[in-house]
Specification:
Largest sheet: 6 strands, antiparallel, barrel
Order of helices and strands: EEHEEEE
Radius of gyration: 16 Å
Distance between the termini: 33 Å
Length: 118
């Protein structure tokens, strides 16, 4: 039986911009990485302990952020922009049992070179 997450609307006061990541040709004909804005969602910031994170995924997730968003077509290849920087999607805990469903998304900050921090 799946667990259903519920969040009050006033907790969904932050905005996250989701980007698809792909490649495009530059004017000189070189393939370069490109990101395209897919959509914007309101989210609630989730606070859980490191111990709860360890049991949820089986590994330490120090330095990650967990957000709750309304169920949407989000995949692990997307990048997310929050108010404090860019993040890659590390894990998605989907809840699609209800017509009002929420997904918990674990995000890892992206450093300047485009890779997620270890």
């Amino acid at each position: 039986m799946a667990t259903s997450f519920r969040y009050d609307p006033y907790k969904m006061r932050h905005k996250a911009v989701f980007y698809t990541v792909g490649e495009r040709l530059s004017k000189s004909g070189v393939t370069i990485p490109a990101k395209n804005k897919a959509f914007t969602l309101h989210y609630a910031q989730i606070k859980i302990t490191l111990n709860q994170r360890f049991y949820a995924t089986g590994q330490s997730l120090k330095g990650t952020v967990i957000i709750a968003v309304r169920h949407n077509n989000i995949d692990e290849t997307m990048q997310v922009e929050l108010k404090d920087g860019m993040y890659s999607i590390y894990d998605i805990s989907r809840d699609s049992d209800d017509y009002i469903a929420y997904d918990l998304i674990t995000l890892k900050r992206i450093n300047k070179a485009g890779k997620a921090k270890a």
